[in-house]
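Hi all, posting the design record for the shared folder.

TITLE: backbone redesign
STEP: 1 of 1
STRUCTURE INPUT:
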């Protein structure tokens, strides 16, 4: 069955028109005969959305009963059974309401709506959905920094990147605020708060830029895949990308700054630096210069890359075309004028072959100062062998002519030494084979013209040993020169490999996703079009022949073009172990590069293991935190249930000891006391164990939109007469929070009661409420005596009772339960020192998210502002 396609309407903020566009697309497709159904749409009371839904087939929602409340979710089973061609599903990042039933709820047991959509796609159903940019996992911290709101509902970026179509629904901040003011986004009672908080012009502008840049990156990925799939090597100037070539010399700093200024002229331009590590030993790169220049590139917002190649112009242009560069910055040649006349050099060759890429030749202080002399034993290329033959063709006649002019003054031994020097010169330039050919020619010339009897091919007994020794020395020296040059070339290649692996290690260590960074480095280093890491599936066939089937493999990670689904689809593969293999597409690597690729492959396996261990560690950390909170909550049971249980048992014992003649009034009083204590015991057990089951993942909280200003009077009432001296300071406007009212009340009562119990009578505690960095903070300030500074942090630990003045009193759970309840609501409880002595306990709870993804479900009860409660709060404040 073919997989369905995913189309995402992406917006910068709620209200830009994503749902409208989705429904408009659905109506357009339905109008041309496509089978379209509405899986789920959230109108949020907007009439225009309801009108667009009218006329489309809507799959009824399924009701979910949770903690006594009824919610509605998309009926995934009904949509799958209906099997439409296209399903419209709103709010991709939505978190599904869990179900208490055995059937797994309305969403097949999935925690997130995007998981529901994955099932629809697997069933061959095309899905059209909506998403706000703030819900992408990679942007979560950025959005929090901009808006001050923590996004609780996030979705992995990879889920959205896999979408076949992503369309940006854009709107200017001013237009969106007008829509908000006209009541087209939120209810009237929420408009003023939203415009003054989340929907400020600055916030919306920043979110809009994030959305635009994210879509640009997605478009770049699609363009790269298209170019790789269609083997397009010419540059498409869709975006400015400036590549600066570094030789490892001191002039690199100048080139990088110049390239940075070129890139800065165009907003959004990319800056990339590349160094070609040559494998023929001719590279004069200085490691210290490269390290400094790499840091400079990264400080300017660019990236550093390194490739291996002998032909520098070809390697530079291959890299530039691979990254779709538009401009290439090179330094002016350091060679002298004569050398430039004989050869165009790297700059000239690159400019001549660059095609559509603009090449900038930048002058610098090192220009025309000359290069380091090239070591003559740097390698045995074909050019060097030809050069050796040229030296022999010119040198032998010159030596012969010189010896002929000096014949009367030189002995035959001198003639042999002169030709030996010529052979050594050819060996140093051309290596073994040109030197052997030169030695043979020198022997013939010596025999014919200089050794007696002259003019014949015969050699006298006295000179036969000289010719043999000459030939042996020539062969020996030529062999040594040849081996030294080959070892030098191998050492240079090894150095280039080491530099490449060092670059890879740096990229992997700095990257958040080491496996992706490593595969991308393989792609760039060896000029490939695609790299895929494949892993055998657990149900893979056991025989080697069947392992070539695509069904036996699954793609772990991939960069470049479309991923390979089996090793046979690539141009080469590098096996890592029995289950993993690295598949390369583009060209088969040379034998010399195979060793480096095997090192890359081994590192890829380690990176994969590292990512999986990190995921397991994160899961273990979550379980550890859960266990710690559960321990604190269960530890509180002892103190919470002991007192009412003892009172109830005492009342029942007194009833048993009384005779039938006991007064009815006494009997009724004891029964009432036992009943009240048992009722208190029931409430305590429920409050203690429900949060524990919450941390264990069995149940969830009962969230409401709650105002702390309304919850405080109720908490003060529960404290009773002891809390009448508490002074309350609450600002006129306090943002609402999204919390469980029962848990919040218990936390506030615990904090206030503890402060009242520990404070001196002439210095009652103070309760302050304020907003701070997206949090509503309730500060309970007291001047209790007797808590050393070193022991302040222990007040919220199990079995520590802060402020107890009776050393004989048995220790109990203290505020550990209170802190556990605060964490269960997504907040925290911390301790601070009170100025002048005492303790301040600060309860922080997140402000309710007013975005559409963060709004409570419509079925949840919302606490309304009660003027009577606010009057009571004023009364408490005056007291």
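Okay, here is what came back for every position:
SEQUENCE:
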């Amino acid at each position: 069955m073919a997989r369905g396609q995913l189309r995402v309407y992406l917006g910068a903020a709620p209200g830009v028109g994503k749902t409208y566009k989705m429904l408009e697309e659905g109506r357009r497709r339905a109008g041309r005969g496509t089978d379209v159904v509405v899986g789920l749409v959230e109108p949020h009371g907007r009439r225009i959305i309801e009108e667009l839904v009218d006329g489309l087939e809507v799959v009824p929602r399924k009701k979910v009963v949770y903690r006594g409340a009824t919610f509605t979710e998309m009926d995934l089973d009904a949509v799958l059974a209906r099997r439409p061609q296209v399903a419209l599903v709103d709010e991709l990042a939505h978190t599904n309401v869990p179900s208490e039933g055995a059937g797994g709820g309305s969403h097949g047991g999935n925690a997130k709506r995007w998981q529901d959509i994955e099932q629809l796609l697997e069933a061959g159903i095309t899905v059209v959905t909506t998403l706000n940019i703030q819900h992408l996992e990679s942007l979560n911290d950025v959005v929090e920094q901009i808006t001050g709101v923590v996004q609780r509902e996030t979705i992995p970026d990879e889920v959205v990147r896999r979408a076949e179509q992503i369309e940006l629904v854009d709107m200017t901040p001013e237009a969106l605020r007008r829509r908000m003011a006209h009541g087209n986004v939120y209810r009237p009672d929420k408009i003023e708060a939203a415009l003054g908080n989340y929907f400020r012009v600055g916030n919306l502008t920043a979110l809009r830029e994030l959305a635009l840049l994210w879509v640009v990156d997605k478009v770049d990925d699609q363009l790269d895949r298209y170019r790789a799939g269609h083997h397009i090597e010419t540059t498409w100037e869709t975006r400015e990308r400036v590549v600066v070539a570094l030789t490892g010399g001191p002039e690199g700093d100048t080139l990088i700054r110049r390239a940075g200024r070129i890139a800065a002229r165009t907003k959004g331009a990319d800056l990339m630096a590349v160094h070609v590590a040559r494998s023929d030993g001719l590279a004069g790169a200085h490691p210290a210069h490269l390290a400094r220049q790499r840091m400079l590139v990264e400080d300017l917002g660019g990236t550093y890359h390194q490739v291996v190649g002998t032909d520098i112009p070809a390697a530079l242009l291959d890299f530039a075309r691979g990254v779709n560069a538009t401009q290439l910055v090179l330094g002016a040649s350091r060679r002298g004028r004569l050398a430039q006349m004989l050869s165009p050099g790297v700059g000239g060759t690159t400019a001549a072959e660059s095609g559509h890429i603009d090449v900038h030749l930048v002058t610098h202080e090192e220009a025309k100062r000359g290069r380091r002399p090239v070591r003559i034993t740097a390698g045995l290329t074909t050019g060097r062998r030809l050069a050796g033959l040229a030296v022999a063709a010119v040198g032998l006649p010159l030596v012969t002519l010189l010896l002929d002019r000096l014949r009367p003054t030189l002995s035959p031994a001198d003639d042999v030494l002169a030709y030996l020097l010529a052979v050594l010169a050819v060996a140093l330039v051309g290596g073994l084979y040109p030197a052997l050919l030169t030695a043979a020619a020198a022997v013939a010339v010596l025999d014919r013209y200089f050794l007696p009897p002259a003019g014949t091919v015969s050699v006298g007994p006295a000179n036969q040993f000289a010719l043999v020794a000459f030939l042996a020395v020539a062969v020996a020296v030529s062999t040594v020169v040849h081996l030294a040059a080959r070892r030098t070339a191998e050492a240079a290649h090894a150095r280039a490999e080491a530099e490449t692996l060092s670059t890879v290690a740096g990229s992997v260590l700095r990257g958040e996703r080491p496996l992706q960074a490593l595969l991308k480095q393989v792609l760039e280093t060896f000029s490939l079009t695609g790299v895929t890491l494949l892993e055998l599936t657990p149900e893979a066939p056991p025989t080697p022949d069947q392992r070539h089937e695509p069904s036996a493999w699954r793609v772990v990670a991939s960069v470049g073009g479309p991923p390979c689904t089996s090793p046979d689809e690539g141009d080469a593969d590098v096996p890592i172990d029995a289950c993993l293999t690295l598949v390369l597409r583009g060209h088969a690597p040379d034998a010399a590069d195979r060793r480096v690729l095997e090192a890359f492959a081994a590192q890829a396996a380690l990176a994969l293991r590292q990512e999986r261990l990190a995921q397991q560690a994160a899961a273990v950390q979550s379980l550890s935190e859960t266990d710690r909170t559960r321990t604190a909550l269960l530890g509180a049971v002892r103190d919470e249930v002991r007192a009412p249980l003892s009172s109830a048992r005492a009342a029942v014992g007194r009833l048993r000891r009384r005779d039938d003649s006991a007064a009815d009034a006494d009997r009724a009083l004891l029964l009432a006391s036992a009943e009240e204590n048992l009722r208190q015991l029931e409430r305590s057990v429920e409050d203690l164990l429900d949060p524990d089951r919450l941390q264990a993942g069995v149940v969830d909280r009962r969230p409401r939109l709650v105002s702390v200003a309304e919850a405080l009077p109720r908490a003060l009432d529960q404290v009773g007469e002891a809390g009448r001296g508490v002074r309350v300071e609450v600002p006129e406007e306090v943002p609402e929070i999204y919390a469980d009212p029962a848990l919040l009340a218990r936390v506030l009562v615990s904090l206030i009661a503890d402060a009242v119990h520990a404070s001196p009578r002439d210095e009652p505690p103070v309760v302050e409420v304020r907003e701070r960095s997206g949090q509503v903070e309730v500060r309970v300030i007291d001047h209790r005596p007797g808590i050393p500074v070193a022991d302040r942090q222990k007040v919220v630990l199990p079995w520590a009772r802060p402020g107890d003045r009776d050393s004989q009193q048995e220790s109990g759970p203290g505020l550990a339960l209170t802190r556990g309840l605060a964490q269960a609501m997504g907040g925290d409880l911390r301790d601070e020192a009170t100025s002048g002595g005492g303790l301040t306990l600060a309860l922080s709870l997140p402000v309710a998210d007013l975005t559409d993804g963060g709004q409570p479900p419509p079925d949840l009860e919302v606490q309304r502002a009660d003027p009577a409660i606010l009057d009571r709060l004023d009364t408490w404040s005056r007291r």
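COMMENT: The longest strand covers residues 270-277.
Let me know if anyone wants the other runs.
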